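Quick check before the chapter quiz. The format below is the same one you will see on the exam, so make sure you can read both the input and the output lines.
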Amino acid sequence: MAGNLDRPTLERQRLDEAAARTAHWRRWGPYLADRQWGTVREDYSAEGTPWEYFPHDHARSRAYRWGEDGILGISDNHQRLCFSVALWNGRDPIIKERYFGLTGPQGNHGEDVKEHYFYLDATPTHSYMKGLYKYPQAEFPYAHLVDENRRRSRRDPEFELLDSGVFEGGRYFDVTVEYAKAAPEDILIRISVANRGPEAAPVHVLPTLWFRNTWSWEQGGKRPRLWRGAPGSPAVIEARHHDMDGAYRLTCEGEPSLLFTDNDTNTTLLYGAPSASPYVKDAFGEFLVNGRADAINPLEEGTKSAAHYALTLEAGATAILRLRLSREGTAGPAGAFVDFDAVFEARRQEADDFYEQVIPDRLCEDSRLVMRQALAGMLWSKQWFHFDVRRWIEGDPAQPSPPPARKRGRNAEWTHLYNDDVVSMPDKWEYPWYAAWDLAFHTISLALVDPDFAKDQLVLFLREWYMHPNGQIPAYEWSFGDVNPPVHAWAALRVYKIEKRVRGRADRRFLERVFQKLLLNFTWWVNRKDVEGMNVFQGGFLGLDNIGVFDRSAPLPTGGHIEQSDGTAWMGMYCLNMLGIALELAREDPTYEDMASKFFEHFLYIARAMSGMGHDGIELWNEEDGFFYDVLHTPAGAVPMKVRSLVGLVPLFAVQVIEPEDLERLPSFSRRLRWFLDNRSDLCHLVTRQVTAEGRTRQLLSLVDRDKLSRVLGYMLDEREFLSPHGIRALSRCHREHPYVFHVDGATHRVDYEPAESSTDLFGGNSNWRGPIWFPMNFLLVESLQRFDYFYGTELTVDFPTGSGTRLRLWDVAAELSRRLTGIFLRGADGRRPVHGGFEAFQHDPHWKDLVLFYEYFHGDNGAGIGASHQTGWTGLVAKLLQQSGR
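Here is the expected output.
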């Protein structure tokens, strides 16, 4: 049985050494972005148009200001020295140094990576990592991908690289990149290139080592240096940086030619101005593709370098390249490869040993494969994220000043924010920036393998250089001031409990730290988002993007405001999460009983507003329908917007059981609770009480009583409405035949059921909450059903599916939903994985069929992956669902 992370393994020992700071095992990791171009950080335009200001075509020639990207690469934890793999098939117009994809305006459904790469394995200290990139032998169809997606409408599916035919006949290379650490700063690198095609094919492989450009932004900025080591075999690139202790070297087996240039912008090409160095960032492409020998530095030094291996592989053949990146004094060139294979095999076996603790042995082989790749994706998706908003707005001393409009534009009120950390990303290509509520879900899966990192991530977002002085948590770089659902308290309590279970000890200090800072954030919500002080919250889009009739983050075309069912419910959940933390802390410190009382009282006020009367006598709960709706307030009056969506299911998330022993251990809290219920008859009916067989009283705090719960579940578990073969849809399927239509000022606004890509351009068109299945919301629903069952047990059963006559208790309903969700990734009886939809290579080809992608969301009817293809972040929750399942 898996689950005890403290059973001694060498990876566990490394984690302990990292936590104690006796060995810096996390100093090097997969911290490169998969995409740095087209990000807000690199945008210095007056209009705030990052896609146009820094496109893919500039990325090979223009130095980045705030970070670096690469293919299956690594860097140190401040991204000073970077390594990744570049490739050229002899046909492409450019060498492949980074992943290509469509910008937001180019894609018919927003931005979209157009490459095939996979995170196959990783340990939490990155002592072993494995990734795979599939590189076509034909010319990469850059223009075809852009033109075809431009031609397609929002009603058409995206045109993908597999659709272009470049992989037909197996004419591609499987490029597998593996890393194994012999020591914290002694990294073995193995690059395996396999020709899957039917005939011999050439390929140039360029393992690339470079320094992030830190010298172009200050007057007299100091340059680090790369240079060729002493002649001989193996070939050696030496590296020294003024801010890194000691020197590093990259030792390359065999006799590759070594190429050198500088990581400087080719200003001559881009702007017609002299470049800072005659040897610029795009030199290797000029040298290989265009045959320009003068592009590379003949003195064999610079700030960017590569070992050039020119290979020709026979059909089915595999070439293996071995390299070693090590700190000075850890591994000399002469013996660099003596222990190479033995270390690799040891790290790989240690990774297996570690995951034997994490992945339950009761799972079938396919479930184990999916769970391990999900966790690998979580660990590969760490990224060094650097952003100094004040400097970004004001500009760098050695560069032209940004346009004055920036001082009044995007994120102008967040000048305190200074990010220089390794952060868990939603998707390092499509979302190479953190998102506050995404990250909260990430920590649940991360806690399964690395509770310390999970806790550090939650603490980080509450630190002074992240959290706004007013208490707001930064949302994401496009708009730090936007509003994400307040799920950090939930995540903190879940991570605390996961660690307590897997390690047998609880980190009370962590819980105290986050509780104190979350008090500031809770106060911000109450003061900023409950405008009229009625405990009804207006939080903007709250992460659900285009789920509603209108863009809830923008002024309404009707005027007025929306009372949000989900905004108010999220705050009810927040109250109960804070209550749960306070009760846990009060077990050892009675002073927290006061805070527990405060959140108990505040929850009841929210529950009254939610289930009783909203503003102007309008209820969020619609008694006639038995469902929660948003209410639109206009100068002409108030109207419930009867869209059956996740907005009406979020109230189920707010549920907490108070056990008799909680009250017995906490007498002060118990006295206050009793006083409140005895003296506030208008609120006491919001607490459900249950007498146990021993005559003790249990309390259920929830936004729904038993009747409301049954009625809402009647919709949620109806296959004609929310229940899909693959989970709970974001929008009821009833809106396929009966779309919700709203008319205002001669314009028609409507919400239709759309199970896949969105046909609306709200939020760039790359998100859809109008029908597909989203893992984070489904995960919260599963947990809520389990908590309700913990209270009601066999006393409450429901039809599953609705109308079937098959009655199940809520625990069994939760288990069935988990089965449907995990089934998206598992091979069914027909041998197919629903996640891969109609892509036959993924379903049958032996070189594709065991590769799993963890998409942003999933088709509401057939389970196919939609949106960002590497959003293992919150979709990585499948690992937690599999761990607690019996499949």
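If your answer matched, good. The chain has 25 helices and 35 strands.
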